[in-house]
Amino acid sequence: MDFVGAYSWINIRFLLEGLWMTVLVALIAIIFSFIIGSIIGLVRYMKMPYVSKSVGVITDVIRNLPLLLIIFFTYFALPKIGVRLDIFWSVVAAMTVFESAMVSEIIRGGLKSIPKGQMEAARSTGLTYLQAMFSVVMPQALRKMIPPIVSQFISLIKDTSLAVVIALPEVTHNAKIIYGQDTSFVIPMFVAMAAFYFIVCYALSLVAKRLEVKLG
Fold it and tell me: Can you spell out the DSSP letters for 1-15?
């Protein structure tokens, strides 16, 4: 093990470039998947004729597919039907699709956990369905949704490592290149990767705790 050589400035800078790619992919996917997942979750909760069931079937299929398969599909299969995405956007698209399905189930479960009487009471005051949903039901459900949503997004950050299979230059890919040049760097690189993932995921959990306290 050569920690000194492994942690040279050139290698650290290369790892940090990979970390930035990891964070960027995760951040974009988190924003898109939260928006799309919230819409899908609402549609499923509202039980719109035909629409909710159709969306539910598609969501369940996606939730039960491996993320790696979806990454392969967006990068290798979509070009066959004329949709060409570079490596970065292929990974973002794959992770957004997968995480949207996961988030939608969390949103739907959170909304279902609120007693129906809350909606009925809000409607009785003259609020429309949507007004009651966003003013009364959603704020209560959000408090319950935060922990599982954050947990899902932490998993998303760690799952970015799967993009190494299509050579996205994220932190795992860059670490692999470094220890591929010198086998004495293997353990130092794994230590560095573990530290980077821990820092990013722990920071996200701290933000979530503060948000949870604020909403509580």
Answer: --HHHHT-HHHHHHH
Q: Is 50 left (phi over 0), alpha (psi -120 to 50) or beta?
A: left
Identify which of 195, 179, 166 has the alpha carbon closest to the alpha carbon of residue 11.
179
Element (H, E) at 33: helix 9-46
Task: Give the whole-angstrom CA distance, residue 24 versus residue 26.
Answer: 5
pLDDT digits (tens, 9 = 90+) for 161-208: 898 888 888 999 999 999 988 889 999 999 999 999 999 999 888 888
Q: Domain ranges for the chain, please list them.
A: 3-215
The model carries a pTM of 0.88
CATH of domain 3-215: 1.10.3720.10
The candidate with the shortest Cα–Cα distance to 10, out of 178, 167, 164, is: 178
Which tokens go with 133?
A: 């949903």
The pair of structure tokens assigned to 208 is 């979530």
DSSP, collapsed to helix, strand or coil, labels residue 210 as helix
How far is 83 from 81, CA to CA, in rounded Å?
6
For 151-183, b/e burial (b = at least 16 CB within 10 A) is: ebbbebbebbbbbbebebbbbbbbbebbbeeee
Shortest CA distance to 36 belongs to which of 91, 86, 101? 101
CB distance 188 to 2 below 8 Å: yes
